[in-house]
Amino acid sequence: MSDSALVLFSGGQDSTTCLAWALNRYTRVETVGFDYGQRHRVELDCRRDVLSSIRVSFPDWGAKLGEDHMVDLAALGAISQTSLTRETAFEYERGGLPNSFVPGRNLLFFTFAAAIAYRRGLKRLVGGMCETDYSGYPDCRDDTMKALQVALSLGLDKRLVIETPLMWIDKAATWEMTKQLGGDRLVDLVVERTHSCYAGDRAKRHDWGYGCGACPACELRATGWQKWRESS
Q1: Can you tell me the distance from the alpha carbon of 43 to that of 207, in angstroms, rounded to the nearest whole number?
Q2: What average pLDDT does this structure show over 157-172?
Q3: Contact at 8 Å (CB) between 149 and 110?
Q4: Which domain holds residue 26?
């Protein structure tokens, strides 16, 4: 299906915005999530809630929303010594990268997503990677995405297109994109249903959603929200 896409969907703000972006463009959209032993596994529950909420609140999008796939990548968590897969404090390492960086994560995510897309006849892979708010993660860079697109297309002998709608915008612009795509209903859905906090905190409610308020993901989301509200 040329007018179809597979969205890498974690249940967070960015991937939910990307899912709305894809549903606004394509006639058939499927989703894929990954369980890699992440500390914030609550996002896996949230992603199901987000999908259900989209079907109810946006019936036109719901009609386009196809199968959801879940991939068990426990081995990735087992070999990763990071603050996303271990109960350790969030900090920067000597090389300059935050210890929340999971080596190879996006490379594996796209490889498994490509295998699903190949089987399902889907032509596009959509991800929420971003160079503006990417914390220095090398597997979120545009160059990495372009190289992956070439490698996957060659390795499968089938052209796949990787789309990253958030690549060159910051979190404030992501909030604005959310508003443009789905109005206040979608903004409210992102605030109430999605999860970005690395610590997995769903107890503390802020204007921008739930989270510990102190981890890098919460700081980005909160700063973006404040900037967007001040400019809107």
Answers
A1: 19
A2: 96
A3: no
A4: 4-171
